[in-house]
TrEMBL record:
Residues 1-24 form the signal peptide. This is Catalase-related peroxidase. Transmembrane segments: none annotated. Belongs to the catalase family. Its EC number is 1.11.1.-. Keywords: Heme, Iron, Metal-binding, Oxidoreductase, Peroxidase, Signal. It holds the Pfam family Catalase. It comes from Methylobacterium oxalidis. GO terms for molecular function: catalase activity; heme binding; metal ion binding.
Amino acid sequence: MSRSLPLLGAGLVAGCLLATGAPAQDADPGAIVDALFKAGGNQPKVRASGAKGVCVKGTFTPTPEAKALSKAPHFAKAVPVTARFSMGGSNPKVSDKAKPVTRGFAMRLSDPAGDMVFVVISAPVFSTRTPQQLLEFATVRAPGPDGKPDAEKIKAFAAANPETTRQAAWLNARPVPASYAGVDYWGVHAYTLTDAKGAATVVKLRWAAAAGQLGLSEEELKAKPDSFYADELKERLSKGPASFDLVAVLAEKDDPTNDPTVQWPEEGRKTVKLGTVAITAPEPDATCDAATFDPVADLPEGVAGPADDPMFAIRSPAYAVSLSRRTN
Ligand code: HEM
């Protein structure tokens, strides 16, 4: 079960994070969630991001190498998985054909000792480096009276914050995925895996689609309706599991752990396969909607997020605000 945080005031949040050695927040999580909602047209009872999506279930089976790197119980035996694929943003009517929009993959690996949650996207980088930057990134995307955001404001923000253009550039250089199961997903943050003896390994995580990168040509894209991912996945799962290999890319000296807008070079890097997530069947929406997938609070001993990345720490209180808004 999720251990979602209760709603916290900004001051208390900053205090909590300082107590754990993480950086102080430079923006209020509630203000960021408000801005995320506004950018998607302020729809009621939806997520502030990943508003359109499908709930599924499956199994995670670890490799022996995973157990050697981390003492998390989820790396010692096969465990059940509840997961949700989604489209980025707070608009539940966004087209599955939209570009440049990340596809999301939230997953809860369950164990009686506690959950292991990852919430990851179909790009190796996040759009912003700091919470304040995310607040501004979302604010300039709010639709005006004509229903459209101000293109000049977006252009000026991008020029002043060039690192915020990397994600869109990456997505624009690739085709729109034909399936939620036909694209790789990345953790974007640096994680530390700790083994039973206390030895630590810093990694970034990638979920490599067994189906490969299934991109749509421009012609195929035109022929698709605005919603096809849910049916495509149902059909795919009726024939067998949709699998992803969980791959750890090991850090090298000078790889930054505090900036999710930077992709570590993968060329020539040591990688370790930690296991396979096999998605086997659809699950009722209610299973995924009752709680939030909290990628910060729901990590076991043996897996830790980066203490120096402010984008990581703020996800927990922001997801709690969104959960509270959509369930009350
Ligand atoms: C930095 C890397 C991040 C990634 C990869 C990411 C990805 C995602 C994904 C895939 C979802 C959909 C989850 C679901 O299906 O339930 C989501 C939800 C959400 N994200 Fe993020 N996100 C990131 C950072 C942030 C940050 C920094 C904030 C705000 C400060 C934020 C705010 C939210 C909120 C409010 C939700 C809705 C949660 C809910 O209502 O359950 N995200 N995110």
